[in-house]
Amino acid sequence: MKKSILIATLSAALFIPLSSTFAANVDMTPKNMSCKEFLDLNPKAMAPIAFFMLDDVTDYKGGDSVSLRESAVIAVPPMVEFCKKNQDKKVYEFKNKLQDLVAH
């Protein structure tokens, strides 16, 4: 009994640091997302991706930002159109065009 508890404790002690190492290497942003991956998303998940792209390191006049609703209504349809035509490209390649659409 004591031996099995010791083995379980040692196994857990070895596994926990390894799992945090692997978790630290996961990119949780859409910066490297391909258009194919974007199109495979649930449509409800597309607006947060557009929102992230529009507000990522962007300075609008007066410190404004783009709302999630505006991202869903204005930004998602052109992103889907771009990605359908360019499935091998990265979503971020459309970022500047997307910002121009929203700013005007």
From TrEMBL:
<keyword id="KW-0574">Periplasm</keyword>
<feature type="signal peptide">
    <location>
        <begin position="1"/>
        <end position="23"/>
    </location>
</feature>
<dbReference type="Pfam" id="PF06411">
    <property type="entry name" value="HdeA"/>
</dbReference>
<dbReference type="InterPro" id="IPR028623">
    <property type="entry name" value="HdeB"/>
</dbReference>
<dbReference type="InterPro" id="IPR038303">
    <property type="entry name" value="HdeA/HdeB_sf"/>
</dbReference>
<dbReference type="InterPro" id="IPR010486">
    <property type="entry name" value="HNS-dep_expression_A/B"/>
</dbReference>
<keyword id="KW-0732">Signal</keyword>
<comment type="similarity">
    <text>Belongs to the HdeB family.</text>
</comment>
<comment type="function">
    <text>Required for optimal acid stress protection, which is important for survival of enteric bacteria in the acidic environment of the host stomach. Exhibits a chaperone-like activity at acidic pH by preventing the aggregation of many different periplasmic proteins.</text>
</comment>
<keyword id="KW-0143">Chaperone</keyword>
<dbReference type="GO" id="GO:0042597">
    <property type="term" value="C:periplasmic space"/>
</dbReference>
<dbReference type="GO" id="GO:1990451">
    <property type="term" value="P:cellular stress response to acidic pH"/>
</dbReference>
<protein>
    <recommendedName>
        <fullName>Acid stress chaperone HdeB</fullName>
    </recommendedName>
</protein>
<dbReference type="GO" id="GO:0051082">
    <property type="term" value="F:unfolded protein binding"/>
</dbReference>
